[in-house]
Amino acid sequence: MVLKENKYYWEVSLKNPEPVVDDYYISDEIIVEDEDLIQKIDRLRELIISYCVMVEKDKSSVPKILDEIYSLIISMDKIQYTEFIAFWKVLDMSYSVFKKLPNQKSILEELLQRYCERRRKLYDNIGYSNVTVQALYDSGASRKKGASGITKLVDLIHGTFGETTHVNNLHTLMTTSIAYFLPDMGDKSLFREFCMKFDIKYNFGKDHQGKEPDMVFKVNDHFFIIEAKHIKESGGAQDKQIVETIEFIRYSENLDNIHYLSFMDGVYFNNFIWTKSNNESKINRQRKAIEEYLDENKSNFFVNTAGLVNLLKDLLEEIKK
Q1: Is 258 helix (H, G, I), strand (E, B) or coil?
Q2: Are 43 and 82 in contact (CB under 8 A)?
Q3: Whole-structure pTM value
Q4: pLDDT above 90: percentage of residues in the chain
Protein backbone atom coordinates (compact mmCIF):
# COMPACT_ATOMS: atom_id res chain seq x y z
CA MET A 1 0.00 0.00 0.00
CA VAL A 2 1.32 3.44 -0.89
CA LEU A 3 0.05 5.07 2.30
CA LYS A 4 2.74 6.64 4.43
CA GLU A 5 3.04 6.21 8.18
CA ASN A 6 0.14 7.70 10.13
CA LYS A 7 2.37 10.32 11.80
CA TYR A 8 3.15 11.77 8.35
CA TYR A 9 -0.49 12.82 7.80
CA TRP A 10 -0.62 14.14 11.35
CA GLU A 11 2.43 16.31 10.63
CA VAL A 12 0.87 17.53 7.37
CA SER A 13 -2.20 18.51 9.39
CA LEU A 14 -0.08 20.40 11.92
CA LYS A 15 1.60 22.38 9.13
CA ASN A 16 -1.69 23.42 7.54
CA PRO A 17 -4.11 25.24 9.87
CA GLU A 18 -7.83 25.12 9.33
CA PRO A 19 -9.30 28.26 7.69
CA VAL A 20 -11.19 30.73 9.85
CA VAL A 21 -14.07 30.57 7.36
CA ASP A 22 -14.88 27.28 5.65
CA ASP A 23 -17.44 27.44 2.83
CA TYR A 24 -18.96 24.13 3.96
CA TYR A 25 -20.11 25.68 7.23
CA ILE A 26 -21.47 28.99 5.96
CA SER A 27 -25.20 29.34 6.62
CA ASP A 28 -26.31 32.51 4.85
CA GLU A 29 -30.05 32.23 4.27
CA ILE A 30 -31.90 35.54 4.01
CA ILE A 31 -35.25 35.06 5.72
CA VAL A 32 -36.48 38.66 5.71
CA GLU A 33 -37.24 38.31 2.01
CA ASP A 34 -39.87 35.67 2.84
CA GLU A 35 -43.05 37.74 2.43
CA ASP A 36 -45.29 35.20 4.17
CA LEU A 37 -42.99 35.13 7.21
CA ILE A 38 -42.71 38.91 7.44
CA GLN A 39 -46.49 39.33 7.13
CA LYS A 40 -46.96 36.90 10.00
CA ILE A 41 -44.30 38.62 12.12
CA ASP A 42 -45.91 42.03 11.51
CA ARG A 43 -49.28 40.60 12.47
CA LEU A 44 -47.80 38.94 15.56
CA ARG A 45 -46.31 42.25 16.71
CA GLU A 46 -49.66 43.98 16.25
CA LEU A 47 -51.49 41.28 18.18
CA ILE A 48 -49.03 41.30 21.07
CA ILE A 49 -49.34 45.08 21.45
CA SER A 50 -53.13 44.71 21.39
CA TYR A 51 -52.99 41.87 23.89
CA CYS A 52 -50.90 43.88 26.35
CA VAL A 53 -53.32 46.81 26.11
CA MET A 54 -56.44 44.62 26.36
CA VAL A 55 -55.15 42.79 29.43
CA GLU A 56 -55.08 46.14 31.21
CA LYS A 57 -58.31 47.64 29.82
CA ASP A 58 -60.72 45.09 28.26
CA LYS A 59 -60.09 41.45 29.12
CA SER A 60 -63.13 40.31 27.14
CA SER A 61 -61.14 40.52 23.89
CA VAL A 62 -58.11 38.65 25.27
CA PRO A 63 -59.12 35.02 24.44
CA LYS A 64 -59.65 35.80 20.75
CA ILE A 65 -56.31 37.62 20.48
CA LEU A 66 -54.58 34.82 22.38
CA ASP A 67 -55.96 32.25 19.94
CA GLU A 68 -54.63 34.16 16.94
CA ILE A 69 -51.22 34.69 18.56
CA TYR A 70 -51.04 30.97 19.29
CA SER A 71 -52.00 30.09 15.71
CA LEU A 72 -49.25 32.34 14.34
CA ILE A 73 -46.60 30.99 16.72
CA ILE A 74 -47.20 27.37 15.74
CA SER A 75 -47.67 28.16 12.04
CA MET A 76 -43.96 28.00 11.07
CA ASP A 77 -40.68 27.41 12.89
CA LYS A 78 -39.09 30.61 11.58
CA ILE A 79 -41.62 32.68 13.53
CA GLN A 80 -39.35 32.00 16.52
CA TYR A 81 -36.86 34.63 15.28
CA THR A 82 -38.87 37.49 16.78
CA GLU A 83 -38.45 39.75 19.79
CA PHE A 84 -41.22 38.05 21.73
CA ILE A 85 -39.96 34.48 21.37
CA ALA A 86 -36.33 35.56 21.85
CA PHE A 87 -37.50 36.95 25.22
CA TRP A 88 -38.63 33.49 26.29
CA LYS A 89 -35.02 32.54 26.99
CA VAL A 90 -34.99 35.18 29.74
CA LEU A 91 -37.71 33.08 31.38
CA ASP A 92 -35.80 29.81 30.85
CA MET A 93 -38.11 28.72 28.02
CA SER A 94 -37.30 27.95 24.40
CA TYR A 95 -39.40 27.54 21.28
CA SER A 96 -38.37 23.90 20.88
CA VAL A 97 -39.36 23.08 24.48
CA PHE A 98 -42.63 25.00 24.17
CA LYS A 99 -43.67 22.94 21.15
CA LYS A 100 -43.32 19.72 23.16
CA LEU A 101 -45.31 20.82 26.20
CA PRO A 102 -49.00 20.19 26.90
CA ASN A 103 -51.33 23.08 27.75
CA GLN A 104 -49.50 25.37 25.36
CA LYS A 105 -52.10 28.11 25.41
CA SER A 106 -51.96 28.54 29.18
CA ILE A 107 -48.15 28.59 28.99
CA LEU A 108 -48.33 31.16 26.20
CA GLU A 109 -50.61 33.29 28.34
CA GLU A 110 -48.00 33.32 31.12
CA LEU A 111 -45.21 34.17 28.66
CA LEU A 112 -47.27 37.01 27.20
CA GLN A 113 -47.99 38.42 30.63
CA ARG A 114 -44.28 38.49 31.46
CA TYR A 115 -43.47 40.06 28.11
CA CYS A 116 -46.09 42.76 28.58
CA GLU A 117 -44.63 43.58 31.99
CA ARG A 118 -40.95 43.53 31.08
CA ARG A 119 -40.41 44.30 27.38
CA ARG A 120 -43.40 45.60 25.44
CA LYS A 121 -43.12 49.31 26.35
CA LEU A 122 -39.33 49.20 26.01
CA TYR A 123 -39.57 47.75 22.50
CA ASP A 124 -42.40 50.12 21.57
CA ASN A 125 -40.18 53.08 22.48
CA ILE A 126 -37.15 51.72 20.60
CA GLY A 127 -39.13 50.60 17.57
CA TYR A 128 -39.28 47.31 15.66
CA SER A 129 -37.14 46.31 12.71
CA ASN A 130 -36.88 43.19 10.61
CA VAL A 131 -33.12 43.50 10.92
CA THR A 132 -33.79 41.97 14.34
CA VAL A 133 -35.43 38.96 12.69
CA GLN A 134 -32.46 38.36 10.40
CA ALA A 135 -29.96 38.92 13.23
CA LEU A 136 -31.74 36.40 15.48
CA TYR A 137 -31.75 33.87 12.66
CA ASP A 138 -28.07 34.49 11.96
CA SER A 139 -27.20 34.07 15.64
CA GLY A 140 -28.53 30.51 15.48
CA ALA A 141 -26.68 29.66 12.28
CA SER A 142 -24.27 27.28 14.00
CA ARG A 143 -27.21 25.08 15.04
CA LYS A 144 -28.38 24.74 11.43
CA LYS A 145 -25.29 23.06 9.98
CA GLY A 146 -26.91 19.65 9.73
CA ALA A 147 -24.80 17.24 7.73
CA SER A 148 -22.32 19.80 6.37
CA GLY A 149 -19.35 17.86 7.78
CA ILE A 150 -20.42 14.66 6.02
CA THR A 151 -21.10 16.64 2.85
CA LYS A 152 -17.54 17.97 2.99
CA LEU A 153 -16.14 14.48 3.56
CA VAL A 154 -18.08 13.06 0.61
CA ASP A 155 -17.07 15.99 -1.61
CA LEU A 156 -13.38 15.52 -0.78
CA ILE A 157 -13.69 11.85 -1.77
CA HIS A 158 -15.52 12.72 -4.99
CA GLY A 159 -12.96 15.42 -5.74
CA THR A 160 -10.14 12.91 -5.46
CA PHE A 161 -11.62 9.77 -7.02
CA GLY A 162 -14.42 11.14 -9.14
CA GLU A 163 -18.01 10.08 -8.53
CA THR A 164 -17.83 7.42 -5.81
CA THR A 165 -20.54 4.86 -5.08
CA HIS A 166 -22.63 5.20 -1.93
CA VAL A 167 -23.48 1.54 -1.36
CA ASN A 168 -26.41 0.19 0.63
CA ASN A 169 -25.70 -3.55 0.75
CA LEU A 170 -22.77 -5.81 1.55
CA HIS A 171 -22.56 -7.44 -1.89
CA THR A 172 -22.13 -4.09 -3.65
CA LEU A 173 -19.61 -3.00 -1.04
CA MET A 174 -17.48 -6.11 -1.56
CA THR A 175 -17.61 -5.97 -5.36
CA THR A 176 -16.87 -2.23 -5.70
CA SER A 177 -13.27 -1.04 -5.51
CA ILE A 178 -14.06 2.47 -4.25
CA ALA A 179 -17.19 2.97 -2.17
CA TYR A 180 -18.57 4.37 1.04
CA PHE A 181 -21.59 4.13 3.31
CA LEU A 182 -22.88 6.19 6.22
CA PRO A 183 -23.74 4.16 9.34
CA ASP A 184 -24.96 7.19 11.30
CA MET A 185 -27.22 8.35 8.46
CA GLY A 186 -29.31 5.33 7.55
CA ASP A 187 -26.75 2.59 6.83
CA LYS A 188 -26.68 1.12 10.34
CA SER A 189 -27.72 -2.41 9.29
CA LEU A 190 -25.02 -2.49 6.60
CA PHE A 191 -22.44 -1.53 9.23
CA ARG A 192 -23.58 -4.48 11.36
CA GLU A 193 -23.17 -6.85 8.40
CA PHE A 194 -19.77 -5.33 7.60
CA CYS A 195 -18.60 -5.85 11.19
CA MET A 196 -19.80 -9.45 11.21
CA LYS A 197 -18.04 -10.28 7.94
CA PHE A 198 -14.67 -9.03 9.14
CA ASP A 199 -15.14 -9.90 12.82
CA ILE A 200 -14.86 -6.22 13.73
CA LYS A 201 -15.52 -5.65 17.43
CA TYR A 202 -16.07 -1.88 17.16
CA ASN A 203 -15.63 -1.45 20.89
CA PHE A 204 -15.75 2.32 20.52
CA GLY A 205 -19.49 2.07 19.95
CA LYS A 206 -19.92 -0.23 22.93
CA ASP A 207 -18.08 2.27 25.13
CA HIS A 208 -19.94 5.33 23.79
CA GLN A 209 -23.66 4.54 24.08
CA GLY A 210 -23.87 2.76 20.73
CA LYS A 211 -22.40 5.66 18.74
CA GLU A 212 -22.17 4.75 15.05
CA PRO A 213 -19.24 5.98 12.92
CA ASP A 214 -20.01 8.69 10.41
CA MET A 215 -18.61 6.84 7.40
CA VAL A 216 -16.96 3.65 6.24
CA PHE A 217 -14.83 4.30 3.17
CA LYS A 218 -13.39 1.51 1.04
CA VAL A 219 -10.40 1.64 -1.30
CA ASN A 220 -9.56 -1.77 -2.77
CA ASP A 221 -9.16 -4.08 0.23
CA HIS A 222 -8.76 -1.34 2.79
CA PHE A 223 -11.59 0.07 4.91
CA PHE A 224 -11.52 3.34 6.82
CA ILE A 225 -13.96 3.66 9.69
CA ILE A 226 -14.31 7.42 10.03
CA GLU A 227 -15.46 9.74 12.80
CA ALA A 228 -15.79 13.34 11.58
CA LYS A 229 -16.16 16.36 13.84
CA HIS A 230 -16.31 20.09 13.11
CA ILE A 231 -15.00 21.76 16.27
CA LYS A 232 -14.77 25.52 16.75
CA GLU A 233 -14.16 25.86 20.46
CA SER A 234 -14.04 23.97 23.73
CA GLY A 235 -16.70 23.94 26.41
CA GLY A 236 -19.90 22.03 27.09
CA ALA A 237 -20.91 19.48 24.46
CA GLN A 238 -17.89 20.42 22.35
CA ASP A 239 -15.52 19.00 24.99
CA LYS A 240 -17.32 15.67 24.81
CA GLN A 241 -16.99 15.64 21.02
CA ILE A 242 -13.28 16.48 21.20
CA VAL A 243 -12.65 13.63 23.64
CA GLU A 244 -14.66 11.19 21.49
CA THR A 245 -12.77 12.18 18.34
CA ILE A 246 -9.42 11.63 20.04
CA GLU A 247 -10.46 8.39 21.72
CA PHE A 248 -11.75 7.01 18.41
CA ILE A 249 -8.19 6.21 17.28
CA ARG A 250 -7.44 4.47 20.58
CA TYR A 251 -9.37 1.48 19.21
CA SER A 252 -8.09 -0.97 16.64
CA GLU A 253 -8.93 -4.32 15.08
CA ASN A 254 -6.80 -7.38 14.41
CA LEU A 255 -6.76 -6.74 10.66
CA ASP A 256 -4.19 -4.41 9.07
CA ASN A 257 -6.67 -3.35 6.39
CA ILE A 258 -9.15 -1.93 8.92
CA HIS A 259 -8.31 1.66 9.85
CA TYR A 260 -9.89 4.00 12.37
CA LEU A 261 -9.67 7.57 11.13
CA SER A 262 -10.57 10.73 13.05
CA PHE A 263 -11.24 13.75 10.88
CA MET A 264 -11.37 17.04 12.79
CA ASP A 265 -11.85 20.33 10.99
CA GLY A 266 -12.74 23.73 12.39
CA VAL A 267 -10.51 26.31 14.05
CA TYR A 268 -10.20 24.34 17.30
CA PHE A 269 -7.76 22.05 15.50
CA ASN A 270 -5.34 24.97 15.20
CA ASN A 271 -4.80 24.85 18.95
CA PHE A 272 -2.81 21.64 18.41
CA ILE A 273 -0.47 23.64 16.16
CA TRP A 274 0.00 26.55 18.54
CA THR A 275 0.34 24.67 21.84
CA LYS A 276 3.76 24.58 23.50
CA SER A 277 5.20 21.12 23.93
CA ASN A 278 6.59 21.90 27.37
CA ASN A 279 3.39 22.84 29.20
CA GLU A 280 0.59 20.81 30.77
CA SER A 281 -2.37 22.61 29.25
CA LYS A 282 -5.50 20.70 28.26
CA ILE A 283 -4.65 21.25 24.59
CA ASN A 284 -1.17 19.85 25.03
CA ARG A 285 -2.50 16.80 26.87
CA GLN A 286 -4.93 16.22 24.00
CA ARG A 287 -2.17 16.51 21.43
CA LYS A 288 0.02 14.06 23.37
CA ALA A 289 -2.90 11.62 23.58
CA ILE A 290 -3.39 11.77 19.80
CA GLU A 291 0.29 11.10 19.18
CA GLU A 292 0.39 8.24 21.70
CA TYR A 293 -2.64 6.57 20.09
CA LEU A 294 -1.09 6.96 16.65
CA ASP A 295 2.10 5.31 17.92
CA GLU A 296 0.11 2.47 19.47
CA ASN A 297 -2.14 1.92 16.45
CA LYS A 298 -0.13 2.24 13.27
CA SER A 299 -3.15 1.60 11.04
CA ASN A 300 -5.10 4.55 12.46
CA PHE A 301 -5.09 8.21 11.43
CA PHE A 302 -5.92 11.61 12.91
CA VAL A 303 -6.15 14.39 10.33
CA ASN A 304 -7.53 17.80 9.57
CA THR A 305 -8.60 18.90 6.08
CA ALA A 306 -5.07 19.12 4.64
CA GLY A 307 -4.04 15.81 6.17
CA LEU A 308 -7.11 14.08 4.79
CA VAL A 309 -6.57 15.52 1.31
CA ASN A 310 -3.00 14.19 1.33
CA LEU A 311 -4.15 10.79 2.54
CA LEU A 312 -6.81 10.58 -0.19
CA LYS A 313 -4.27 11.51 -2.85
CA ASP A 314 -2.02 8.70 -1.70
CA LEU A 315 -4.94 6.30 -1.79
CA LEU A 316 -5.55 7.37 -5.38
CA GLU A 317 -2.03 6.25 -6.20
CA GLU A 318 -3.00 2.87 -4.75
CA ILE A 319 -5.81 2.64 -7.30
CA LYS A 320 -3.43 3.48 -10.15
CA LYS A 321 -0.96 0.72 -9.28
Answers
A1: strand
A2: no
A3: 0.80
A4: 83
